[in-house]
Amino acid sequence: MDWYPLLNSLRIAAISTFVIFFAGLFFAYYIAKLPRLVKGVLDVVLTLPLVLPPTVVGYLLLRLLGPKRPVGAWFLSVFGVKLVMNWWSAIFATAVVIFPLMYRTVRGAFESFDETLACAGQTLGLSNRYIFWHIRMPYCRQGVLAGTVLAFARALGEYGATSMIAGYTPGRTATISTTVYQLWRTDNDALAFRWVLVNIAISAVVLLAVNMLERKNPARGRKGGA
Amino acid sequence: MLKVDIEKRLGAFQLRAKFTAESGRLALLGASGCGKSVTLRCIAGILMPDRGTVELDGVTLFDSERRIHLPPQKRQVGYLFQQYALFPNMTVEKNIRCAIRTGSAREKDEQAAEKIRAFRLTGLEKKLPAQLSGGEQQRVALARILASEPRAILLDEPLSALDGFLRWELEQELSELLSDFGGPVVWVSHDLDECCRNCARVSVMENGKAGEPVAMDALLKSPATVGAARLTGCRSFFPAERCREGARIPALGLLLPDAPQRSFTTVGIPSDAIGMTGGSLACTVRSVTRGRLSASVLLLPDGGGTDAMLCAELPRDAAIAPGDTVRIAIRPGQVLYL
Question: Which three-class secondary structure state does DSSP give residue B313?
Answer without folding.
Answer: strand
